[in-house]
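Entry 14. Two folds queued back to back today. First construct below, sequence then structure tokens.
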Amino acid sequence: MARKRFTTEQTASFAKGFRYLTVTAVTPALPDFRLSRAESSQLTAQNSTLTRLGDGVVALTPGSDPMLLMDMPAAKNLRTCAAMTVVAVVEAAGDDTAQIFYLPGKEVSYRRENVATVSFLANSKKAIRFDVISSAGFNPKLRFDPVTKKQAATVRELEVFCRRRI
């Protein structure tokens, strides 16, 4: 685990004399899964065609509800994870919504109640973040819908982190 120290600077006159606490945030040094390092056999596209570009970037052709299914056998420790964060960089020509579907515990079918959703702007190269919680842990398989509209999407990166253990 890497430790990062965040502090605020006391430059405002009204802040002089205030005591403040330096917060140390603990984050994993490495993600449990990284799309750019995934084997092609770990990735499946539905309702779209998947193309691997340089540096592990994934392009999906326009389709009705395109899905990227990820099998993460090396991320077995997600089974004992209570809080998971997924960070992705998605590009699309129009504003859209991305969704991550997860499988709590030993579930094998994706359901609407096990989804996190984030909206993003067209041609944005900013990271979008999904935070999900499961007291039963997570099955090391994810479904990522980078767009909900019928348009092409490029997933520049996607990383999965366990933030808290059961």
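Second construct, same run, same settings:
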Amino acid sequence: MSQVVRKVVEEVLGRSPDARAAPAGGEPPRPNYQRQRALARMAELSSERPQPAGASAPAQARIRELGSELKRQRLTAVPRPEASSGPASSEPAPPPARAARPVAGGSRVVWRLGGDDGVWWLDAPHPDAVPESVRAVVAAEPTVVVAIARPRPRHVLETAEALAELEGARVLSAGSGRLLLGVTHGDVRALGAWARQTGSRLERAALDRRRVPRILGNPPPWAQALLGIPAVEAVGWIEGVAELDAVVLADLALGASGGLGTRVTVQAGHLVVTGSRPDVAAMLEELERQRVRLRIPSGGDR
């Protein structure tokens, strides 16, 4: 019986068990899974008990069933690519190429601070989309625009310190009385990260109710214009002081210190001190001492 089954299998597969030659190059032949399954079925059939000669119909029926099944498998099998006749390469095959993902671009809001204040990313916008009021700070390349309609000294300080950390940045200023800066950089990724960090920094400064004296060394030209000061080594201020309270504080501090080589000016809501960094620090300390002594509230005490 096993010989009959083997013959049927070989006829269905279209070749004898020994007819498969080894491929060129000495490589071992690939396993023939169809033949292995057929041989397994043959072993199953041959292991059956011998039956009388007149009772062989069920076995013949199973042989025909096996032949039909092998034919279907042969017709539906996906052909495999033949092995290359050249020498086998020890290097692994490269992974399939992936389609390039487009880089996200376009103008967008980076950080909104309320009203007309915030940080924007302008990716070379269409000229017709840019009004004259901001055209001076928009470059023909990705530009981060920082805008504060009514800037206070803390906005100037935070923006200037943030710019000092972005080495190689190019700053465009409108000089319009508001904080309006365009910032470009050769590294677009670094510029994008800086935009987010600056927005977060300005938001924290706006929410901070403390009005401790602050000093900015070597203020850039745009900061000088916003603060109404000349080119100096350092500028410091106390925010949130009523105008006439600021007059009292400035008068007492200047009389007690002899001026210290500094200049003290009263601006809307704050006192501004300019001069050398050590002298500015000493004057701010005297102003704060007088404020506490007279119980004059500052922005954080209101």
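Quick look at the second one. The CA atoms of residues 130 and 277 lie 40 Å apart. Residues 16-22, 81-86, 94-104 have pLDDT under 50 and may be disordered.
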